[in-house]
Amino acid sequence: MDQVTVKAPAKLNLALDITGKTENGYHLMKMVMQAIDLYDTIRIRKNDTGKISLSCGLESVPCDERNIAYAAAEAFFQHCGIEERGVEIRLDKVIPQQAGMAGGSADGAGTLTALNELYQTGLSLPELCGIGKTVGADLPFCLTGGTAVVEGIGEIITPIADFPDCDFVVAKPKGGISTQRAFSEFDRAEIGPCLDITAMVKAIEDRDAAGACAQMYNALARVCPLKEVEAIQNIMTSCGAKGALMTGSGSAVFGVFTDRGKAYACERRLSQRYEECFLCKPISHGPVIE
């Protein structure tokens, strides 16, 4: 086997709260995260160069050690003690960048999945997550997928029942805010934990999409209000969304629809104004080997 192709899904934060900080300054999180059927494609081929190389069709994507997929490959080889590290990684990106949808982390998770298959190392999901968390906080969830409560700095994953059948409309405005700035604004605001995870989990287990939407919350959106985010939320709710929220540190916004016709109509309306609009479904898995 000389080549593997993996599809790596994006994520949404159905809920995001910040509960404190570690001694070394990392924020402690409590989140409900959801994988969706919006994928980047990672193709990895062995070669005899002895080096990791990475390519992507987008100029805005770094193709060196700054890229999470590159860093994930380095971490994989180091963990497994593999000296022959000649691989070519090709990223075909669909997940929006700087959107709060874990596009970079999805690529890292896809890279770990592909290398585990390519080199037949037989690493378990917990072992892959252990490597992943050394690269980025979102990688453990991106490897796990599905619907899960995520805690700590992102490394504690508790899978829960699948989210009720629905459609997600996702729209990303051009503007945004850096993750670092979003967390800095939260620290300055001195807001305590506000999220009732138990209520959301129960609603999901009861197959109550509207009840789950009533519990949606994003602490970062609360301290970093963006006019375009609010505008998208208003359009989504006017189109019949049960709830609409910015995901992660933004700036992508998602709406939850239990009526597919209304979801289609909303996506068409938003696509007239925003270039990056998607109609997605919740999925119960992480990266998939093609």
Which secondary-structure class do the elements indicate?
alpha+beta
CATH topology of the largest domain: Ribosomal Protein S5, domain 2
Distance between the termini: 13 Å
- The H/E string reads EEEHEHHHEEEHHHEHHEEHEE
| C-alpha geometry | globular
TL;DR?
By secondary structure, the protein is α+β, with helices and mostly antiparallel strands.
What does this structure look like?
The chain is of the alpha+beta class and 290 residues long. It has two domains: 3-160, Ribosomal Protein S5, domain 2; 167-280, 2-Layer Sandwich (Alpha-Beta Plaits), CATH 3.30.70. Helix content is 33%, strand content 29%. The protein has helices spanning 68-80, 103-118, 125-132, 139-144, 179-189, 197-205, 209-213, 219-223, 227-238, 260-271, and strands at residues 3-21, 27-46, 52-56, 87-92, 147-152, 156-159, 167-172, 217-218, 243-246, 253-257, 276-280, 288-289. The strands form two sheets. Strands 1, 2, 3, 4, 5, 6, 8 and 12 form an eight-stranded mixed beta sheet that branches. A four-stranded antiparallel beta sheet has the order 9-10-7-11. The two termini are 13 Å apart.
Q: What key attributes describe this structure?
A:
290 residues, alpha+beta, Ribosomal Protein S5, domain 2, Alpha-Beta Plaits, eight-stranded mixed β-sheet, four-stranded antiparallel β-sheet, 33% helix
Which secondary structure elements does this structure contain, and how are they paired or packed?
Elements: E1 3-21, E2 27-46, E3 52-56, H1 68-80, E4 87-92, H2 103-118, H3 125-132, H4 139-144, E5 147-152, E6 156-159, E7 167-172, H5 179-189, H6 197-205, H7 209-213, E8 217-218, H8 219-223, H9 227-238, E9 243-246, E10 253-257, H10 260-271, E11 276-280, E12 288-289
Parallel strand pairs: 1-8, 3-4
Antiparallel strand pairs: 1-2, 1-12, 2-4, 2-5, 5-6, 7-10, 7-11, 9-10
